Amino acid sequence: MKAILAEAVDWYVRLHDSDATEATRVDWRNWLSADRRHAEAWARLEQLQHRLGQAPAGTAHTLKSARRSRRGALKVLALLLGVGLAGWQGYRASPWSADYATRVGQRRRLTLADGSRLDLNTDTQVDVRFDANQRLIQLRRGEILVETAKDARPLSVRTAEGRILALGTRFGVRQEDGLSRVAVAAHAVEVRPDQAPGRVVRVDAGQSLAFTADHPGPLRPMAPDAQAWTHGMLVAVDWRLADLVAELSRYRPGYLGCAEQVGGLRLSGAFALDDSDAALANLEDSLPVRVRRLTPYWVRVEARGA
């Protein structure tokens, strides 16, 4: 993928060169459609440009400012990654090297080599490592839903806190800061925290578990609509407004926050994840709140009249 990302940078520089012609754009479109990975690399490049364009004044750098040379564009890429040009050469450590990824607000469904189904939620990165002895999915960040195919090799998901072994099942895994969450929709999994290898916990269908690297939490009932995101929906049943806004913020770029004065309001409802603006408008209609927008990328839910 590194070489393809470098090709994408080359195309970016060529397209923004003053000598670019329609023939250049035709060649670029042919390159883009020739391989699915080309389109993925270009999407990542556009996402990078978007993020750089939102940087604070005085620190913002865009690829356009470096378009005179491929090396200059690579330096800007490295700047965002925070590793410098030498670190760019050691690119495998970067999240850009993930086997599969989604941008903020994007979801994706895959069929893996063994026939297993893998759904990626917003802002998710995973690596897939299948060999003769095992099937391993490394969840770097975000959230996935796994539906395993029959295979003699064990399938497991690794997070920052431990390993989840599938026992022929359909289950979701979410990576948070210092915490992993598992919700099982069918059959069962076994959870093994890294620093408590002797504390193996079986999580059966209809159950969920949050665990740290040294402690598996208590088993709890799985929320009925915990995996509604795979259908593009967020379902809240008697949620705090602050929790709902925090969840919606995962699906849109920039800042989306909630004022403390209204964070404790309770509500229930179903919201389309692909249209968070409509969800925010619904909040204004149903609660004594207003949505304050400084820019499309800075939005806050506040008390009405504040």
Can you walk through the features of this model?
- The chain is of the alpha+beta class.
- The protein has helices at 2-15, 22-34, 36-53, 70-81, 84-89, 241-249, 276-286, and strands spanning 100-101, 108-111, 117-120, 125-130, 135-147, 155-158, 162-166, 170-176, 179-186, 188-193, 201-204, 207-211, 220-221, 233-240, 255-258, 266-272, 289-295, 298-303.
- A hairpin with an 8-residue loop joins β12 and β13.
- α1 (2-15) packs across α3 and α2 (22-34) packs across α3 (36-53).
- The longest helix is centred in the N-terminal third of the chain and has 18 residues, at 36-53.
Tell me the β content: 25-35%
According to DSSP, the number of beta strands is 18
Structural class: alpha+beta
Order of helices and strands: HHHHHEEEEEEEEEEEEEEHEEHEE
Major sheet, described briefly?
A: 13 strands, mixed
Q: What is the arithmetic mean of pLDDT?
A: 84
What is the molecular shape? Answer: flat
